[in-house]
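User: Need the bound-state model for IPE:
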Amino acid sequence: MTQEEKNSITLPKHIGVIMDGNGRWAKSRGLERSEGHKAGADTFRTICNYAADLGIEYMTFYAFSTENWKRPPKEVKAIMKIFRDYLDEANARQGENEQRGLKFHLIGEKSGLPGDIVSKMDTLEKGTSDKNVMTVNLAINYGGRDEILHSVKRIAAKVKDGSLKPGDITEDDISANLFTAGQPDPDIIIRPSGEYRLSNFMLWQAAYSEFWYSDVLWPDFTPDDLDRAIFDYSRRNRRYGGV
Ligand code: IPE
Ligand code: IPE
Ligand code: MG
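Assistant: Bound-state model below.
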């Protein structure tokens, strides 16, 4: 978008993206599904950098759900390899100080992920913790219900040790124990590929998010598509239950 267009709208602070349609993109080209995931990872890089340049403060990318383990082992393996390659690349760039001020944060259950991916992710999180242009949440082994369960377990532990009374538990306590603790809720959630569902994405945080759908398959998603979503968002009237 042009500077003039940007000045005429209010940018969302936090955008969530359900990166869907990689498999169909590959199929339509007679390629293996893994090729679709590779193309999707390239789109992720492009959109992530574009959003940071635009001045978006938080982006959450849904890359692998707690339900995606149901897929054929070959596909899961290919996706994990893409994560490894991306994390290696991001860690190497960080050394060269080429990262665009991106602060990375894993949202998802670390305990269910291969150990080397968790340690590459830890390296990236630690190495970018002082960056302040844009926070990038990578939702890997992420499920909204799992995240709420995780929060409830942490709160239950506080009740058990006596530091919190059941009657004193607030919505803020639940938010503060999610993987996104301290972050604003997503203003807009984008889902490409013609599907109209959340698929377990940010269930708690999406309470008042605006939804934006597109038939474009994620590997074909462009910065212009992101602009379209943002322009539409800026015309919405958010009431939060008020008038
Ligand atoms: C999204 O693309 C990537 C993951 C869920 C890992 P899909 O692989 O779901 O693509 P479609 O929906 O089958 O086209
Ligand atoms: C949602 O896509 C998860 C990710 C994009 C990571 P899915 O393709 O897994 O969702 P469903 O199965 O169509 O609901
Ligand atoms: Mg899908």
